[in-house]
Amino acid sequence: MATEHLNRYLSLAASVSRRVADEMVRNGRVTVGGVKVLDPGTLWDPSTQEVRLDGRTLVPVQEEKIYIMLYKPDNVVTTMKDREGRKTAPSLIGELSSRVFPVGRLDFHTTGLLLLTNDGEFAYRLTHPRFGVEKTYIAKLQSIPRPAELNVLRRGVAIEGKMTTPAQINFIEKKGGKAWVMMRIAEGRYHQVRKMFEAIGHRVTKLRRVAIGPLEIAGVEPGEWRYLTSKEVREMNAYMDRRAVEVAGQKPPADVPRHPKRFETPADRGKRKVIKQSINEAARRKEIEKEKARLTEIQKTARYLKEEVDAEDVAEIVSKWTGIPVSKMLESERTRLTQLEQELGKRVIGQHEALAAVANAVRRSRAGLQAPRQTTSCSQSRPSRRRTA
User: Do 57 and 50 touch, CB atoms closer than 8 A?
Assistant: First the structure.
């Protein structure tokens, strides 16, 4: 059974905004199947029910599909609304006959091509990994990468424990110690382009998206937008159909060879080895920090609870780092705990003796204040009481 939200249907059939449609429903002007409805979000079945506004039947209107190309400038978010009051991409377009939404996202400081539409199916095909739509970026780097470093990106690099798919990399130019590099990828992870360049030791200072599939940014300046032509929409749909077949067959993109030939000098291989070692060392340092944090928690538990299992866990972890046998470490830990218990026992005994001395002193002071006839008996009972204490 196909259902539809009542306020959305009213907005299309009566050519009003969603807010006005909501007010119509709340004011009791709308009936569904002859029953008055007061909830704008009510779901109804167009095949079996009839919607009336003020007693008149509403005829459904087919919503026009809108496709927009926007040149997103810097310092603009791609959400519909922003809690921090920052400028949003939809606000650059203004009011249209139908509400459009951004397809995918661009980071706050990333500029370039952004598509907006009211076609949900079109947006789904553009963003779902099953279709593998490629995005092309131009990055300005703070330093100049070596060819061997760019080859690492072409083969894929590890980001947060997961390898990226092979990327197409083209070196554009270098000037004043800076470099411009074009990257084409078929993924869309968070800050992926910036993280990929950071993985080989180069920071991205500017990033611009120049193409999505065959669609290149053209005819607009930063902050401007235009409608896509019918030809551009057809080309995008045909491209997504073709990419879906390629991804389903697990075929690499046409411009990325399955077994690319590598022409590397011994010096290039040495540089590549150094880069891999630095990446592995950074990952190892991060793992060590995590193990140290875990070790600290285990040590606290072993110190306060003195549980044998926790002590063994601590010994196994530390044994991996120091090479000391676990049995020897456990024995030293037991000896240390025994010494602590003995020291604690001595302190307790000393405290008991001090309290006994204070109690005897109090008794003697009380005995001195009593009558002379009781002094002898008190003096005779002192040794016995001292022995009892």
Answer: yes
Contact 210, 135 (CB under 8 A): no
Hey, which bits of 124-201 come out as E strands?
Answer: 135-141, 158-159, 162-163, 168-175, 178-185
260 in a structural domain: no
The torsion of the CA quartet 186, 192, 193, 196, rounded to 10 degrees, works out to: -110
User: pTM for this structure?
Assistant: 0.53
Q: Which residues contact 51 (CB under 8 A, 6 or more apart)?
A: 6, 9, 10, 13, 30, 31, 32, 44, 57, 58
For residues 208 and 88, give the distance between their C-alpha atoms in angstroms, rounded to a whole number: 17
Give the total number of structural domains in the chain.
Answer: 4
Rg (CA), the chain: 38
Residue 166 in any domain: the answer is: yes
Higher pLDDT, 167 or 281: 167
385 pLDDT above the threshold of 70: no
Residues 242 and 279 in one domain: no
Whole-number pLDDT of residue 362: 72
Closest CA to 117 of 41, 227, 35, 42: 227
Active site residues: 107
Distance CA 104, CA 190 (A): 11
Judge contact between 208 and 111, C-beta under 8 A: yes
Q: What's the pLDDT score for residue 273?
A: 77
Q: For residue 72, what are its two tokens?
A: 């997103």
Domain check: are 43 and 21 in the same one? yes
Look up the domain containing 349 and give its range.
341-388
Say which residue the tokens 């009510």 belong to. Answer: 42
pLDDT one-digit tens code per residue, 189-201: 889 999 999 999 9
Name residue 117's beta-bridge partners: 67, 101
For the chain, the first-to-last Cα distance in angstroms comes to: 90
- Summarize pLDDT for 54-93 with one digit per residue, the tens: 888 887 666 688 999 999 999 999 988 888 889 999 989 8
Give the tokens for residue 155: 């083969």
